[in-house]
What does this fold into?
Amino acid sequence: MKNLGLLSLLFIWVLMVEVAAVAGQTPGTWPVPKSPPAAPAGETQEPLKVFTEEVIIPIFVLDGNRRFGPTLEVEDLLVFEDDVLQENGSVRREPSSVLLLLDTAGEKNPAMKTSITREIASLLISNLRSGDRVAAIQFGDHVETIHSWTTQTDKVVQALKAKLFSGKRSRLVDGLMAGAAHLREVPAGGRHVVLITDGVTSSADRIGLPEAILELLSVHATVHVISYTSIGRKIIQRQNPLVVVTNEKRKSAQDIANEIMYPSEPREEIRRRKIYVIVDTDIAMRRQRKKYEAETNQSEKWLASLADTTGGMMVLASSEAEMIEQGARVAREIDAQYVVAYRPKRPLALSAKGEFRSIKVAIRRGGLQIHARKGYVAKSEKR
It folds into this structure.
């Protein structure tokens, strides 16, 4: 009991000392907390990182005359993700980033000419808005960057004149992979690919095509296709018919010798006015052409599906002049773009690896047409 009394007295004495210390401070003030130690000279403190989940999708708005609709408001749109209505955060106009992916391997397709591809690309560039970024890559025999990202679009046109060359073997898969890497260098939301190609690649490269398409989907690019498939088949069929009816006989070596020796005498076939039926007997070559035509039919389907899924347009021209004109049309389509941003009701952090979320966009206002990508590859923003 005596020891307990001493402990009680000691506790009361400590308490009185603490009260006296507090009472000695200036009224209305508290002890100033110590500042954290300053960073050593030459070093900077790492900024606080705040991660927000926001989905940014491009939409294309045109009026009844296929002209840009300039008065869109956030209240005009209904955005559904996986059939769930989302709350729109904003709708705005932003500069576009347009990557030209140019196939220069025209060995099998007589319509694929580097000069035509250059004209299409140049016309497209000249019709883009001021402030849009442009870059260009060619893939024929090898993949080469013609010009990196720039807003000085005239420099890209000059680079196309100086650096665009034809090749033989298409490197489509490598070109798509290189394109996806380039698109990661520019802001999301306004990423566009203009793919000028027939979509045909070797059987060995075709194995890697699904992975290359996945890369494009993962960077959320809008893919527009100007295809050489239809015009290529048309020219092949016209140049290489199975049967030709003509009054011109296929010349032999003897015919050539006679023309050299007797240039002024009328030819035998003219005197007799015969009609000749010429049958193409090069079976091996005809099989190769048929195989290529089948490959273009197949590539046309997946190119159209890629454009539709990403919200882009697919151009199938019937003539060289029409193909060139379509460059300006694609540019107008690109610059009819708005960017819609929203925070998904189902967090991106809950996404499975490689998850694809569907998107549907509707417009409340009449008189406007709208289209958008079919969905996007969801990625968690967690670090």
About this structure: Confidence is low (pLDDT under 50) at residues 1-36, 42-51. DSSP finds eleven helices and 16 strands in the chain.
